[in-house]
From TrEMBL:
Residues 22-115 form the YdhG-like domain. This is YdhG-like domain-containing protein. InterPro entries: YdhG-like (IPR014922).
Length: 120
């Protein structure tokens, strides 16, 4: 069984290998998530930066060509409180963040806290 790697060097390498506009958005999202919950464990999984709380996936930063997604693994529970979250289905929702546009760090922090609280 393969294990995700969470070393600081790998996380730094994740950012170093991104184009500048993706790096800015990804680092801004990472800062907002970690300021909201410093205890979260960061891992590079599936080529994305993921954040875990007690082994549970909480949030992931997923980078695409035109935008970044803040994937919230239990986002369906949070959708009534955060209408900015998009998606359908049983669990996951996402917050779209366009490159070269400011990140609403307060919103990202609130979503992070709510996601952790929803785990119980």
């Amino acid at each position: 069984m393969r294990r995700p790697i969470h070393s600081v060097a790998l996380i730094n390498s994740f950012f170093e290998n991104l184009p500048a506009e993706q790096r800015e958005v990804a680092q801004s999202l990472q800062q907002a998530v970690m300021q909201a919950a410093q205890h979260l464990r960061q891992e590079v999984k599936w080529g994305n930066l993921c954040f875990q709380d007690n082994g549970e996936n909480i949030i992931a930063i997923v980078l695409h060509k035109a935008q970044a997604h803040l994937q919230v693994f239990n986002g369906a529970q949070l959708a009534p409180r955060f209408p900015q979250l998009e998606g359908t289905g049983r669990g996951m929702r996402l917050l779209k963040c366009r490159y070269r546009q400011p990140i609403d760090q307060t919103l990202v922090a609130a979503i992070t806290q709510a996601s952790i609280e929803a785990l119980g």
